[in-house]
Amino acid sequence: MPKIDSMEFFSTCNGLPVHISDTKKGDRAIILLHGYLETLYIWEEFATLLSEHMRVISIDIPGHGLTGSAEVNTMSFCADVVVSVMDKLEIQKAFILGHSMGGYVALEAVKGYPDRFQGLLMMNSSPFPDTEEKKADREREISVILQNKLQMIIRTTIPKIFAPSNLVKFEEKILEIKETAEVHDPEGIVASIKGMMQREDNRDFLKALKMPLLFFMGKHDGIIKEEAAAEITSIVGASKVVMLENAGHCAFIEEPQICLQKLIAFVKEN
Length: 270
Hints:
Blueprint: E1 7-13, E2 16-22, E3 29-33, H1 44-50, E4 55-59, H2 75-88, E5 94-99, H3 101-112, E6 117-123, H4 132-145, H5 150-157, H6 171-180, H7 186-197, H8 203-208, E7 213-218, H9 226-236, E8 241-244, H10 251-254, H11 256-269
Parallel strand pairs: 3-4, 3-5, 5-6, 6-7, 7-8
Antiparallel strand pairs: 1-2, 2-4
Helix pairs in contact: 2-3, 4-7
């Protein structure tokens, strides 16, 4: 597959230096937001496919990659950064797609700036806040990172975003994601974990949302398990959920063609 023809640059947005990739071409635009421990480079292959249909913008979310960090990267702060990026690029309205943590940011962006978005796409993400058990896990993770062991967290976490049956197939991609994650500043990652711990319950917001909406879920997602996927489906309706039979927590890499087909159909309808 040819590499995506895009420009990479930095811009100060909402007070932070933000690493941005922009294909610059297309009447319609989509913002891609990566997940925890990822960078904008995780979208490379999928963005190449998408760029044939629309303008594709991806960023390193605050605390990740080459973008700066606040003391706590709350999801609403990150959403403000996203909209500031749109302002800098003179994009009045766009679709927004968030993977996992990126979905939490996308939800806050849509909540805070409903007039700026044409549709919300949630990729292996959920509207639920952290449980007390999950918060305790995150506190433990913070303590490990502060012991200078971020690379250990990366090595153990990244393979878990793929379905067990896909680990061999995507061995090279997993290695690439791990290597790219070496650029993360541990303090930025800790600030992002704290931000995720503070996020709100968005069930009621989703129930009331009038904006076009589509969820992508993996049948073998080890993070958003069957029970959570069923609850999301009951909240938004089965017509707004695409279940990927051969995917884990990274459907756009594990099942790119189906994701692309459903995404393009969604954009054309809205």
